[in-house]
Amino acid sequence: MTSGVVAGSLTRGALLRPGALMRLVFAGLLAVLTEAAGVGLVGTATWMIVRAAEQPPLAALAVAIAAVRAFALLKGGIRYAERLASHDVVLRVLADLRARAFAALAARRDPAWQSSSPGASHADALSRVVSDVDAVQDLLLRAVLPAAVAGVVGVAAVAGVGAADIRAGALLAAGLFVAGVALPLLGNALARTGPASAAAIARTRGEVAESTVDLVHGAAELTAFGAMPAALAEASARGRRLARLEARAAAVTGLVTGFAAVVPAATAVGIAALVHGPAAPVLALVALTVGEVVTPLAAAAARQSEVGGAVQRVRALVGDRTGDRDDMAEGPRRRALREPVDVRLRGVTVRYPHGVRAALEGVDLDLPAGRRVAVVGSSGAGKSTLLDAIAGRVPVAGGRVDGVPAGAERWQVAGGVFADAHVFHATVRDNLTLGRDGFGDRELRRALESAGLPEYGDRLDELVGEDGGRLSGGQRQRLLLARALVDAPPVLLLDEPTEGLDPAAADAVLATALRAAGERTVVVVTHRRADLARFDEVVTVEGGRLAGPVAG
Amino acid sequence: MDRRLLRLGPVRRYAVVLAGSALLAAVLVVAQAVSLATLLAAAVAGRLDRPQTAGWLAVCLAAVVLRGLHAGALGSIAGRAAAGVKAHLREELLDAAARRGPAWLTGRRAGELATLAGRGVDGLDGYLTGYLPQVFLAAFVPLATLAWLAFTDLTSAVVVALTLPLIPVFGVLVGKVTGARTARQWHLLSRLGGHFLDTVRGLPTLRAFGREPAYVRRVRETAEAYRAATMRTLRLAFLSALVLELVATVSVALVAVPVGLRLLHGGLTLSAALVVLLLAPEAYLPLRALGTKFHASQEGLAASAEIHAVLLDRPSATTEPRLPPSGAAIALDRVEVRYGDVVALRDATLRIESGDRIALVGPSGGGKSTLLSLILGFTAPTAGRVLVGGADLAGLDLAAWRARLAWMPQRPHLFAGTVADNIRLGAPDAPLDAVVDAAVAAEADGFVRALPRGYDTDLGAHGLSSGQRQRLAMARAWLRADASVLLFDEPTARLDPASEAAVVASAARLAAGRTALLVAHRPALLSIATRTVTVDGGLAELRPAVAAQ
Description:
The structure holds two protein chains of two kinds.
Chain A: H1 2-12, H2 18-53, H3 59-107, H4 122-164, H5 166-192, H6 198-217, H7 219-224, H8 228-274, H9 279-294, H10 296-303, H11 307-318, E1 343-350, E2 360-367, E3 372-376, H12 383-391, E4 398-402, H13 410-413, E5 414-417, H14 428-433, H15 441-450, H16 473-486, E6 491-495, H17 503-517, E7 521-525, E8 537-542, E9 545-550
Helix pairs in contact in A: 1-4, 2-3, 2-4, 2-9, 3-4, 4-5, 4-9, 4-11, 5-8, 5-9, 5-10, 6-8, 8-9, 8-10, 15-16
Chain B: H1 3-6, H2 9-45, H3 51-100, H4 108-122, H5 125-152, H6 154-163, H7 166-201, H8 203-208, H9 212-264, H10 270-312, E1 330-339, E2 342-352, E3 357-361, H11 368-376, E4 383-388, E5 391-392, H12 398-402, E6 405-408, H13 419-423, H14 432-441, H15 445-450, H16 466-479, E7 485-489, H17 497-511, E8 515-519, H18 523-526, E9 531-536, E10 541-545
Parallel strand pairs in B: 3-8, 3-9, 6-7, 7-8
Antiparallel strand pairs in B: 1-2, 1-4, 4-5, 9-10
Helix pairs in contact in B: 2-3, 2-5, 2-10, 3-4, 3-5, 4-10, 5-6, 5-10, 6-9, 7-9, 9-10, 14-16, 16-17
């Protein structure tokens, strides 16, 4: 059965831990009991009625009557327990997979996962990990568990019905095979192939999203250049194409659903025609009830057609090492270095995987302790990459960065605000400490004040919204700066720390940041010429090379 | 139910189809149950070979096959209708956004609208393919079943009729009790649920602070907290399903046991008893399913409310706009622009003669971009008038007016598509020769040819630097050869000296013989201007400066 194959692949790659598997089996057993109670309710009720028609003494029905009432109560009660158990185990699996996937991502050292590289869809790759893990959860709850339950209930029912009447058993087995195996396989195959495959729909949906994003973010250009009607028409054409594909996919699902719906009733009719005597209604209604456990599988298989890829990607991510990756040693709680450090770049070259040319080429830069350097140049010239190279956030393809004391990690030497800095959907405090212990409110307030955000000193436990959505652009920037100042390393790197601030505020923030930096080395990327006078040295990055120092 | 959604043309037609289909479903449910019960009674009595039974067998098979066809067709129709409605709503949303114009679509609203048109509209699937069909089934099937039950066995029909209303009553009651608590947990749940994505997105930042090992435990703890909170919610939410299922199963038992007892005393035929046994559950099923599908439709309904909020107060087209007069002279007549409480421009008066090249200087936030936005027709003055050739811009055909403008924003948006198509933005039919000429004039040809596929390079997959983006935007302006007014908004603000020189040189050539408004900070661009005007902060005082004229 398909479910067996999927379940096997789930356990083989160590996607599920043994404990989770046990809980899953328990939830499955509860589900089997629920369905058994349903079959029992229908079976005993029918038997009671058929027997009653023979007008036996009332005592002959007493057990059946009690059983009907008991099954009626049991079914609802067990169902409740089963739904809680299955959701609980799936959420446990989700928690486990999330932690292990994150540990695996955190441990990865290949450059594509490390830092933002222009053009490469790094953020997309990360987001896909999240949706892949969610897809595994969905697969477990909506396909694997129901399929396993249907399998057990089906086999038991075939055995029971077959014991009563071999022809009825054979008919039921055939019906269950069609509805539970053949039709799901067909639905799955149809959803994978053809012009309306799930992959084609996902692609078209991506095109629709692209049109939408272009249309709303480029609305000013489209309007000014009179291109809005054409853009609307294009978006509409893409939307209609998506609608056609979705309609076709719905027709495929409808086809298998329709066939699946016929099977249980047809089996019941077949039993009614084949079997004579009082067993006929009981067997037919049992077949009908069991069939309805199996029929949803066909549509589920069609819907889950694309999930195989997600399962494989998650397994590749978390399954290459089977140890308790989530307990990845945190090591001693280390802080940034306190002592001054002289850093020196010699012939540093950085290449991104898909870049046409090197992002940085043969860069020499001396950063003696306490030096203040401004980096200017157009965006894309390599300024942010220069900071990344100093901080060790990108692999250096050529040359070297000297000056990191033995035993120290690079982040302990150089760090700050980078171009891809993320504000977490958490409290101000969490965003400042990033979970680092040992920073009291006083230290956090001092960092906020230095960054020009004193108003949040008393609001440390306030949530900042998704990606700092509740902050203004300027506040977001200052929060990032404050985070860098909480435990500032000897080389403080700031990528456009005053972006989004008005000129007066930008001056004030930069001045306080430089004052807070004290004796540290500071490297600041800036576009503002007014800033340059504050620095010992101004270097211009041009096409990945240092275009020579400009007098400050 | 969402009335605004039901008023949509495609939804209304779909609802009519659903009503008909539910009526058919009701007939088929009764036909299948009655014929199957009759067949089974015949099988018990061993009377299967009678011709009468063959007739019932045919009826039963027909009902079974028709129910299958009906289920398949309903799924197909529902999917098609939902796809059509979603496409329709997306079109309407984008159309409404386009009508409101770029000034409305600034900042976070653009992202919110994109999300609404994407995930938001997709969320309607649960409502359209699940809940709406079920509403009609729940209306017709229980009634048809009850009617036939009453005809077969009045006592059973009374029991079903009395217990059936318990399902909606309990459903609403339990929903009321749990709904408030669920709503309170909703924010917590969505934040905990989104934590993983948030943390994964922040991984580069965590790495920069050496914090990624600590966050492994945090991810696990938060996912555990999410599980605990979700389970608290589900314990309540599943309670409603439990109550509804109990009502249904206990009611079936309530019907079945007395039927058995009456059979015992010969008060009922086996055939009638089997009809009751088969039909009674069918009465409860649609109502229970309605409860389940109601929950799945809630997300879509929330999105629907937002969608209609955007669609409803969409500005209606003004009365027959006039073509702008041919003269290119532009004037601001005591214009005021307010954004809420903030006054961006006040009492601004300016005359721009044909051929004037005016540099706009002043502090950021002083209203320079607002001034360009007024002339582009993106922003309407809250007081005063913008005059074009003596006519008020408010009454003119803006598309025709904008055809005379070439605009270069501070941060040009590049569209998914080729370099050539991006340059063609204002002249979609321009041949490649003209595109290349424009790129050469904008000093963009060099770097474009160095791209992997030259003018065919897809910009969706290939990033460009600010300088390169500005030069593509300049090429757009060059390709609008018949534009008589140039509007440049700090095109060199973020550029390195080499790019700046290239853009300024190109701008100077393009501006020759045209009217131009140049927002500028740097001296290089100011050299093109014939006049300089200071746009000064919140004061919005406009003062023609004495400049080389």
